[in-house]
Write a structure and sequence with these properties.
The complex is a heterodimer of chains A (126) and B (359).
Chain A (H helix, E strand, L loop, with lengths): L7 E2 L4 E6 L2 E6 L1 H7 L2 E5 L6 E2 L4 E7 L3 E5 L4 E6 L2 H4 L3 H4 L8 E5 L8 H12 L1
Antiparallel strand pairs in A: 1-2, 2-3, 3-9, 4-6, 5-8, 6-7, 8-9
Chain B lengths: L11 H6 L3 E5 L2 E6 L3 H10 L2 E4 L4 E6 L3 H8 L11 E8 L5 E9 L4 E5 L4 H11 L6 E4 L4 E7 L3 H6 L14 E5 L3 E5 L8 E7 L3 H10 L3 E2 L2 H10 L35 H10 L4 E7 L10 E4 L2 E12 L4 E8 L6 E6 L2 E8 L9
Parallel strand pairs in B: 3-13
Antiparallel strand pairs in B: 1-2, 3-9, 4-7, 4-8, 5-6, 6-7, 9-12, 10-11, 11-12, 14-17, 14-19, 15-16, 15-18, 16-17, 18-19
Helix pairs in contact in B: 2-7
The chains are: A alpha+beta (126), B alpha+beta (359).
Chain lengths: 126, 359
C-alpha cells in the first residue's frame, strides 16, 4: 500500500497535504482498498467549518458507509465536486484526482508522519 | 465475537490464494470480494461468475413420513414436486412470522432442504421440535457438502466442458444427481437473476472443481456481488426482508406459499387470516430520486410520519442508480422519503424485479 512520504495522516485514514495554511484532504490508498468500489461521496458546503476529528461528509462503497473526518480544524475553501459524478476517482487516484476537499487551517493539528501511519497500519492488521 | 474461531469452507485456501477480502458472515470466514464488487457483478451479468456458498446448510429428511414432515414445515405443497424438482419456500412459525427461506429438493428417496447458514441451529431445532411424532430422520449434512454457484450467461457453456449430463435438459428449478468432474448434484438454480447452476459437491472434491471452473473462464465472485445481484433481481435475503416479525406474504413471496395445500403447514392459519384481513405491511421496490444511497434500517417517511423501513439498499451496478427494498404500511404508494442519516431524500416505488435478464 502506498503511503507517500510528503503527506501527513490520521488514524481514521485521511491524508493531508499542507501548503501554507491550506490543507488538501483525501483518504489513503489503504482506506479506499478497505472500502472497495466507491459509488457515492457526500461533501460539505464551502464556507462551513469543522473541528479536528469532526465528520465533514461520507464516502460510500457498494457495501459500506464511512464518515470522513476533518484532520485539522478549519474552514472549507474548496471541494472536489468532480467526485459527485466520478466517485471512482477515489479508488483510482486516492492521492491525486481523488482528493476530497481543501481546508483553511485555523488550529493545531496532531497528525501522523508517513512512518507513523505505516506503523499504525501494521498494528491494526496484526 | 473476535475471540470466537470462525468456520471455514473447503475453499478457504483458494480464496486466500486469490487475494480475497475475507469477512465474518454467519460465523464463517467468507470472501466478500476478490477484484471488486462492481467488476464481479458485471462478470455475472455478462459472462459467468463463480461463488463459494458452502456456508449454506443442508438438512436431509429420510424415512417413511419424510414427505409428511416437510409438508408440515414449509409453505409450498411439496407433494406437487417430482423427483428431480426443487422449490423455493418459507418456513413459518404458528403466527406466520418467518423462520427461514429455503429450497426443498425432492430426490427419489428423500428431501434435501437447503437453509441459510445464519439460521442453521435455529432451523434444525425448529424442524426436530415440530416433527417428533413422525417416522422421519433429519440429518444435518451441512459440513459434508460444498456448494458452488456458477452464474451468468456463459454458465452452461463452461459447465458443459466438465460433464456428460445434458445441461440444456435441466430446466429452472430442476436438478440431476450426476458427475461434474466429481459426483455432484447439478441444479439449475441461483440467487443472481441470471441463468446458472448450483453444484453440490463433497467437500473434498470442491477445490479441484473450483479451480477447474475458474480456468474455464468463470470469474470468482464474492458475497458483495451476490448481494447486489440478488437485490437487482428483487430476491429476499433472510434477516433483511424476512424475519420472525415478517410473514412471507408481506415479503412478497406469496408465489412460494400454497395456502390451499391439503396438509396443514405451520403458520397456514395465520397466513390465511392475514390474506383475508389484508397485509399489515408490504414489500416494495424503490429508486432513490435524490442524492444518496438508502441502506438497511433507514426509516421510510410519508407526510412526516414513519411508515416503514428500508430492508436492503445499494447502488445498483447494472442500473447505476440507488435502489432498495422496503417494508411499508399498506397505504404507501408511488412516492415516499427515505431518511438518509438525518436527510430526507425522495424515493419512488418501482415494480420488481429491478433487473430481468433477456431470455
Amino acid at each position: 500500500m502506498s503511503v507517500p512520504e510528503e503527506l501527513k495522516y490520521t488514524k481514521s485514514h485521511e491524508w493531508v497535504r499542507m501548503e501554507d495554511d491550506v490543507a488538501t484532504v483525501g483518504i489513503t490508498e489503504h482506506a479506499q482498498d478497505e472500502l472497495g468500489d466507491v459509488v457515492f461521496v457526500e461533501l460539505p458546503e464551502t464556507g462551513s467549518s469543522f473541528e479536528a476529528g469532526e465528520a465533514f461528509g461520507t464516502v460510500e462503497s457498494v457495501k459500506a458507509v464511512s464518515d470522513l473526518n476533518a484532520p485539522v480544524e478549519g474552514e472549507v475553501v474548496e471541494v472536489n465536486s468532480t467526485l459527485e459524478d466520478s466517485p471512482e476517482k477515489i479508488n483510482e487516484a486516492p492521492y491525486g484526482d481523488g482528493w476530497i476537499l481543501k481546508l483553511r487551517v485555523s488550529g493545531e493539528a496532531d497528525l501522523l508522519s508517513a512512518d507513523e501511519y505505516e506503523k499504525f497500519l501494521q498494528e491494526e492488521s496484526s | 465475537m473476535a475471540s470466537e474461531r470462525l468456520l471455514r469452507t473447503p475453499l478457504y485456501e483458494e480464496h486466500k490464494a486469490l487475494g480475497a477480502k475475507l469477512v465474518d458472515f454467519a460465523g464463517y470466514e467468507m470472501p466478500v470480494q476478490y477484484e471488486g464488487i462492481k467488476a464481479e457483478h458485471e462478470a455475472v451479468r455478462t459472462r459467468a461468475g463463480l461463488f463459494d456458498v458452502s456456508h449454506m446448510g443442508e438438512a436431509v429428511f429420510r424415512g417413511p413420513e419424510s414427505e409428511k414432515a416437510v409438508q408440515r414445515l414449509v409453505t409450498r405443497d411439496v407433494s406437487r414436486l417430482e423427483a428431480g424438482q426443487a422449490g423455493y419456500c418459507a418456513v413459518c412459525y404458528e403466527d406466520g412470522g418467518t423462520v427461514d427461506d429455503v429450497i426443498v429438493y425432492k430426490r427419489p428417496e428423500d428431501f434435501l432442504i437447503v437453509i441459510n447458514a445464519s439460521n442453521r441451529e435455529k432451523d434444525l431445532e425448529h424442524f426436530q421440535r415440530n416433527i417428533e411424532d413422525l417416522d422421519v430422520e433429519v440429518a444435518d449434512e451441512s459440513d459434508a457438502w460444498a456448494l458452488l454457484a456458477l452464474q451468468g450467461p456463459e454458465a452452461e457453456s463452461i459447465l458443459r466442458q466438465f460433464t456428460d449430463e445434458d445441461l440444456s435438459a435441466i430446466k429452472p428449478f430442476r436438478f440431476v444427481e450426476g458427475e461434474a468432474g466429481a459426483p455432484a448434484i447439478i441444479s439449475r438454480t441461483g440467487y443472481t437473476g441470471e441463468d446458472g447452476f448450483e453444484l453440490y459437491l463433497k467437500s473434498d472434491d470442491a477445490p479441484e472443481a473450483w479451480r477447474m471452473l475458474i480456468e474455464a473462464g468463470a470469474t470468482p465472485a464474492g458475497l458483495g456481488a451476490r448481494d447486489t445481484l440478488r437485490l437487482e433481481a428483487g430476491m429476499c435475503l433472510y434477516g433483511n426482508e424476512l424475519d420472525p416479525e415478517t410473514t412471507p406474504l408481506e415479503a412478497g413471496i406469496s408465489f412460494a406459499v400454497h395456502l390451499d395445500k391439503d396438509e396443514e403447514f405451520i403458520g397456514q392459519e395465520a397466513l390465511r387470516a392475514e390474506r383475508e384481513e389484508g397485509l399489515r405491511k408490504k414489500l416494495v421496490g424503490f429508486e432513490v430520486e435524490g442524492r444518496g444511497i438508502a441502506r438497511h434500517g433507514y426509516p421510510v417517511m410519508a407526510d412526516g410520519e414513519e411508515v416503514g423501513e428500508v430492508t436492503s439498499g445499494t447502488q445498483s451496478p447494472t442500473l447505476n442508480k440507488a435502489i432498495g427494498l422496503a417494508l411499508v404500511a399498506p397505504g404507501v404508494e408511488d412516492t415516499f422519503e427515505v431518511e438518509i442519516r438525518g436527510r430526507s431524500v425522495e424515493a419512488r416505488t418501482v415494480s420488481l424485479p429491478f433487473y430481468k435478464r433477456e431470455s
